[in-house]
Specification:
alpha/beta; three-stranded mixed sheet
Length: 283
């Protein structure tokens, strides 16, 4: 679930497909470029390559006033009981504390054993609502780790000055601070020049190869990682193993695309099937 930046787009819910460079749900289609659209397109590509059921996508248009985000929270909370949910991946959405609480309560009341992943706005909402420990996995970047490590910040824009100035190489310090303040779920996949897979505050794996410097300038590469991760967990991979594999697959897809800073994210996610083959997950 997640919003898209289209002011007039009402709520859409249904099977997502990705064909010919276009992500489709119901009567709506879009060329993925950033955020939720890239996450879902990457999940679609990964699921198809692994012969898994396609994602069910719930979205709406929101350019910042929060109205459509509120509708999205309400729809998901009301319909979780009727959906066959293995993974609930939440992405760009305006933070809404009651909305996030309702979704997690509905999931518990429906007795769904779903893995809950929060990225971007959904992660901010979970932390602001003091519900981070009710989520299974956060997928922050290094800058968002500073937000998670600051117990007073309700949004990354309000991060404590000292933490905001910490260099990205001090990610491990930020991870420790975030766990000390109980602003994290059990597992983190911290995205960046080095990807950190963290469980209960301990870094269990770092992924830094292949290192493709051009990927740091390409929008959407963190979103593709979240989509791949969601699909792998949907396919039955254990959470930590899925985090490690997703980080490797995302990097290999970048390498195979031979990118420069002007490369489109579409070129990278198009290499996901080949990356899956390279790590031995499909023939």
């Amino acid at each position: 679930m997640g919003t898209l930046p289209f002011n007039e787009m009402g709520l859409k819910a249904g099977k997502a497909t990705f064909e010919g460079g276009r992500l489709k749900v119901e009567d709506f289609e879009v060329t993925p470029s950033l955020g939720t659209s890239v996450m879902v397109a990457s999940a679609c590509i990964t699921c198809e390559a692994l012969n898994l059921k396609s994602p069910y996508f719930v979205t709406s248009g929101d350019i910042g006033d929060g109205k459509r985000s509120k509708e999205l929270y309400q729809y998901v909370a009301a319909n979780l009981g009727t959906l066959d949910v293995t993974v609930l991946a939440m992405h760009y959405i305006m933070p809404d504390i009651p909305g996030m609480r309702n979704i997690l309560n509905s999931l518990r009341e429906a007795r769904k054993e779903a893995t809950v992943i929060a990225d971007a706005g959904a992660m901010y909402a979970a932390k602001a609502a003091d519900l981070a420990q009710k989520i299974d996995i956060f997928t922050p970047d290094a800058g968002e780790m500073a937000y998670l490590a600051d117990p007073k910040a309700t949004h990354p824009a309000y991060v404590e000055h000292l933490l905001f100035e910490l260099d990205a190489t001090e990610v491990v310090t930020l991870i420790r601070k975030a766990y000390e303040t109980r602003n994290t779920p059990k597992i983190l996949l911290v995205k960046g020049p080095v990807d950190y897979i963290v469980e209960d505050g301990e870094v269990v794996e770092t992924i830094e190869e292949p290192s493709i410097s051009a990927m740091e300038a390409i929008g959407g590469t963190g979103d593709s990682l979240t989509g791949i991760l969601s699909a792998l967990i949907h396919g039955g991979y254990e959470k930590i193993d899925a985090c490690i594999k997703a980080a490797k697959i995302n990097r290999i897809a970048g390498k195979l695309a031979e990118p420069d800073p002007a490369t489109s994210i579409l070129n990278i996610i198009g290499k996901i099937p080949d990356a899956l083959k390279e790590v031995g997950l499909c023939a």
